[in-house]
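tokens incoming
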């Protein structure tokens, strides 16, 4: 037993389904993992998972690496800071560089997912010089390929509605009446989940009420990854990176005013087109399914269930060959000061 210790930094609820396959890989090695959950984030830990409740406990735990699905981490935590991402690169706004590629100066290692991310991250690695990029595949999807069937086993078709939170792109305001109307007239089941950053109380209450009004509508605040995806046949969405995750299960997606549509989607521009597009998606047209396969392979070619192991191997390689040998990270003094204020932690040793 090597006794290595790793830390998971959780600031939003989507982190649990991303990090648990990585935790399984750590345990299979005979090593330890612990979770640090930011204030305000829901605690979904199981009884067999270890939580560190304070920053001082993290410092004492002294992990060799900290895995982060989000955009930031406490810079003073011990260990190599590893970005494992909360989704795939999606051009939510075609006029902008995807936020997926923003370099903020917090991370030592980026674990890229495939051809859609690795080449550009390698360019950024050469430009900045203070981090290394490893193509590992996304640790979250190990569970997609290691857990048997991912198909819906219910008798009725099920639609998953999971909009993005991005202002000006989110479809939740536009599609409420559409979803209500379809739920009234069609026998389809609905699962409605919202991104944790989509937090409009009035909107949430309206969709929760649908779950009370119709037996075929279920509203759940968070999306639990594979456990949610396997219950659905088709996704209704807009421009969220969750689209790629769902299509990895060989399932079609209908999008409403997607900002970067392609032949792998059934994209509609008007509310009255949604129902017909869902009907078409449920029929799984051969040409559509072929385009879905090609598109998802561009994002995630690693489908052997060993992405998490590759992430751990990347950390080992970085510690052995690069730690302490790269250019220093940007000082980011003002950001670091604000983070220490937020954490109320001012020890420097």
């Amino acid at each position: 037993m090597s006794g290595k210790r790793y830390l998971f930094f959780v600031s939003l609820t989507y982190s649990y389904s991303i990090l648990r396959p990585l935790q399984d890989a750590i345990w299979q090695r005979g090593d330890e993992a612990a979770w640090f959950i930011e204030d305000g984030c829901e605690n979904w830990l199981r009884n067999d998972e270890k939580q560190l409740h304070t920053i001082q406990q993290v410092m004492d735990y002294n992990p060799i690496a900290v895995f982060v699905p989000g955009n930031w981490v406490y810079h003073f935590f011990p260990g190599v800071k590893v970005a494992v991402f909360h989704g795939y690169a999606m051009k939510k706004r075609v006029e902008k560089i995807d936020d997926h590629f923003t370099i903020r100066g917090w991370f030592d290692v980026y674990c890229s997912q495939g051809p859609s991310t690795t080449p550009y991250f390698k360019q950024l690695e050469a430009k900045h010089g203070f981090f290394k990029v490893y193509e590992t595949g996304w640790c979250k999807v190990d569970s997609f390929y290691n857990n048997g069937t991912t198909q819906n086993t219910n008798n009725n078709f099920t639609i998953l509605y999971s909009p993005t939170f991005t202002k000006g792109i989110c479809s939740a305001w536009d599609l409420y009446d559409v979803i209500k109307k379809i739920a009234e007239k069609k026998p389809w089941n609905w699962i409605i989940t919202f991104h944790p950053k989509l937090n409009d109380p009035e909107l949430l209450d309206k969709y929760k009420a649908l779950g009370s009004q119709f037996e075929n509508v279920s509203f759940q605040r968070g999306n639990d990854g594979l456990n949610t995806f396997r219950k659905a046949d088709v996704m209704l969405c807009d421009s969220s990176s969750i689209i790629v995750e769902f299509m990895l299960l060989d399932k079609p997606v209908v999008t409403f005013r997607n900002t970067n549509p392609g032949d792998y989607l059934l994209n509609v521009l008007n509310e009255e087109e949604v129902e017909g597009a869902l009907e078409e998606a449920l029929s799984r047209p051969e040409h559509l399914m072929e385009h879905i396969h090609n598109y998802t392979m561009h994002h995630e070619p690693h489908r052997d269930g060993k992405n998490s192991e590759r992430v751990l191997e990347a950390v080992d390689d970085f510690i052995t060959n690069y730690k302490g040998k790269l250019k220093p990270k940007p000082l980011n003094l003002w950001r670091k000061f604000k983070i220490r204020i937020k954490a109320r932690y001012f020890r420097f040793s």
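note: The chain has two domains: 5-144+305-343, 147-299.
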